[in-house]
Amino acid sequence: MSSRPHLARPGQSHTPTHPSGLRQTYTASSSSSAERSPGPASPEISATHRNAGGKRPTEASALLDVREHVHEGPCNHGTFSPRPTSPTNSLHDSVSPSESEAEVSYPAIDGVLSVTPRRRGWKKQWAAKLRSRKMSTSSQLAERHGVKDSLLMYLSYYLPVMVWAREYSWSYFKGDFIGALTVAGMYVPMALSLAENLAHVPALNGLYSFVFNPLVYALLGSSPAMVVGPEAAGSLLVGTVVKASVDRGHGDDGDVAMHAKLCGIVAGVSGAMVLIAGIARLGFLDSVLSRPFLRGFISAIGVVVAVDQLLPELGLSRVADTAHIGHASSVDKVAFIFRNLDKVHTLTFTVAATSFAVIMVCREIKRRLQPRYPGVAYFPDRFLVVVLSAFLAYRYEWDKAGVAVLGNVESASGHLFTFRWPLQPSNLPHMREAMSTSFLIALLGFFESSVAAKSLGGEGFAGIQLSPNRELVALGSANLVGSCFGSLPAFGGYGRSKVNKSTGGCTPKPVMSSLISVVAWSLIEECPHDVSFFLQIRAWQELGLMTIIVLATIFFSLAFGMAIGVGLSLLQVIRHATRPRIQILGRIPGTNRFENAEANLDHLEFIEGCLIVKIPEPLTFANTGELKSRLRRLELYGSNLAHPALPRLRQDACNRNIIFDIHGVTSLDGSGTQVLVEIVRDYRQRGVRIFFSRVPGRDSKVGRLLRLSGIVELAGGENRFVDDVHEALKLTDAEEFGEPGMSDRSSGL
């Protein structure tokens, strides 16, 4: 254009004598022709704003005077739905939270910040020093509403036993007593089995984890219904530490004292890690590992456990010890079994197979009858198998016939309870060797426990609120106390929930192995359902993760499979966190609403000369690394989905005004601010106008950083920061064609 058009005077209708290029819009199908035509607008270009009369607008329809149509009730038209009132939290005319609260009366919090302090005694002064900021605010709220505020109230939050003990009624005792007997009959033999067969430690160490750990968790845990005890996964990982220690020459397979010591060290280190994570408020980490990771790893554990138990079930334990196959992978053990089928002990295999069949049949019968007869769940079928097998072993002297039996259950130290602090300097070499495995136990244990705790919550006690951080403290404290007596690591979770309805124990080792095989089956049985679901939704990434974890665990080791799974899960989290999610916005024809153009490319129109970019997330060091390249791709192609090998599709004239919608930027760190400064400076040096819409309040952290970093000044002043995209479009039109006073009306300075 050779000359600037004459715009309407202030106070008149904002209808320019000559239409501006910014008021011209084009759809995706006509964008290429519009970009190639520097002259008059193409016939395909259509102005889509509605004028005040409601008629079809023409090129002369003023973008600067578009009426927004509002209605009562919630809007569901998109990101920029018309609103009865314009937002007032922009950078230039916002008010601080305290100012807005002063204008509106909120009975719930009115006067909280202006409570007149009173003289307090020395006890209250000391209590005030111990209180956190949240507790101080809570005290003011309690005083405002006449609620008694005491240190006991906060203590009850951190010690849930003070809640459920106060609410406990003798009417609960009968059911709890029967439940305790049932659980004891089911879990005591299972604890012996896990310690003896998986962890390779004295059987009594498995019982310790059902004595000390549940007691401590009952005092500190926020999920009273959760059962805490040893798990197959944790016990198996303890066994890997014991085997590795033997391989390094620290004792032999018969050194039960050393094995018990290592068990306490592993439990102590994992408990300390969990406790420190709770104190550091890292409870959010339960969301890091994905469901496919948990399913794949638990299924792999089920396979490993089942293969491990085949050796004692077939009576090949002694042959395996002679061949040193006990420390090999699951694939090597299966190959060993096939090579030694001629050495299978017939009676041992018969006892194990019969026990497994009886348990599985009873399990299926109980599953079908339980909906109609809930009491059938308390039938102690596993316990009866234990008692019957022990009686038959004694009556027919199976031990003399070659069937391995558990024998006497004794402590490695010769005393029932021996206190040993596991984290002492003399144990430092063992702690270093067990550090990685202890970390895996802590991570998996907490992840499984959090899943169970979320499903159970504070069942039966309304005053108990579930807290991941308190769960970490409770589980860590429980394992630290248990480790002083050499207990197995004890958590609650997925495996515990499955075993809770189907467990047991025995004296003959083939029966013990068959019980653990049932646990292995329960760990694997839900895997086909998840695989079918992921196939149905074509979640190839999740299926790949599950497959890699299972194969790595079976062909190599449990620790390697766990490490691979954790590493891949963390890579997914990092990839997700570091990928910018910026969007190019297009306008819905006939409206002033804007949507993601990449999702609705053929149904939106674009404003000539404007690139509208939405940043829907906080800007931090994690996700700003690729922000410049993503913006550059939007400039060149108008889409993040375009391959960078394409030639340039958008000319510089299409990007002479860039509008950033930063409503989603709720936080901004130093690195993100620095990258944003570089982006704005680069655009300004290229002569591009920069506008920001829907900016957080002036007194917010984001608003302060925008001013202190110089972004406001670089962009052209606070008049470039407006309430919404529509206002920014008005401003671009005014600045490009020089409407008198338009820029000043947007500024609060």
UniProtKB/TrEMBL annotation:
CDD domains: STAS_SulP_like_sulfate_transporter. Pfam families: STAS (PF01740), Sulfate_transp (PF00916). The chain crosses the membrane at residues 177-195, 207-227, 258-280, 292-311, 344-362, 544-571. It is found in: Membrane. One of its GO terms (biological process) is transmembrane transport. Residues 1-57, 72-103 are annotated as: Disordered. Residues 12-27, 78-93 have a biased composition (Polar residues). InterPro entries: SLC26A/SulP_dom, SLC26A/SulP_fam, STAS_dom, STAS_dom_sf. Its main location: membrane. GO terms for cellular component: membrane. The keyword Protease does not apply. Residues 28-43, 94-103 have a biased composition (Low complexity). The keyword Oxidoreductase does not apply. It is a multi-pass membrane protein. Residues 600-732 form the STAS domain. Keywords: Membrane, Transmembrane, Transmembrane helix. This is Sulfate transporter protein. It comes from Parathielavia hyrcaniae.
